[in-house]
Amino acid sequence: MADIYRDADLETTALAAWRKMALVGGITSIALGLVLLIWPEQTLLVIAALFGIWLVILGVTRLAGAATDRDNGTGARVLEGVLGLALVILGIVCLAHLIGSLKALAVLIGLIWIFAGLVEIASVFTRRMGGWQRVGTFVFGAVSIVGGLVVLLWPKLSLTTLVWLTGLWLIMLGVVQLILAWRASSAQRPIAAR
């Protein structure tokens, strides 16, 4: 009999913890989604700043690796140091010119999507696959190429649209998390009554 009570207590405790996490996650997701929808341009600037900071941190890490790595030869360490210095400089340039770094980020995203689409289309001709899989892969590749071209042609609009879609997605995710928190609370009552 004691095992039944212990199992019920564990289940109630787990549901309570899960409910709290879902509740906090839901509120946070909705708040972040609203921030993205209300201030999309400022969000893009924050993303550009984070991108620049990431480049600086990555560069400093490479410089530190070049200075402390004794396993590689001098030539490899020099190359790693040059790469680190280039990343630091690129990060500082991005931080100094946030709008320009956003455009560069959009170009990078566009080129990656185009390349990914070309790889998908090439795989249609190089891999063995059935009819529907072949059609689906080709369509996915074509959509990726078109998406990449759209991002390249209209970078600001594309990035703003991505921010808006992310904001809407976060709000929907938050609502689902709140519903799950409410359901967990409802499920907790019968277990506590046992």
UniProtKB/TrEMBL annotation:
Keyword Membrane: yes
Name under which the protein is recorded: Uncharacterized membrane protein HdeD (DUF308 family)
Record field: transmembrane: 21-39, 45-66, 78-99, 105-125, 137-155, 161-182
Matching InterPro entries: Acid_resist_chaperone_HdeD, DUF308_memb
GO CC, alphabetical: plasma membrane
Source organism: Allocatelliglobosispora scoriae
A Pfam short name: DUF308
Keyword hit for Protein biosynthesis: no
Organism classification: Bacteria, Bacillati, Actinomycetota, Actinomycetes, Micromonosporales
UniProt KW keywords: Membrane, Transmembrane, Transmembrane helix
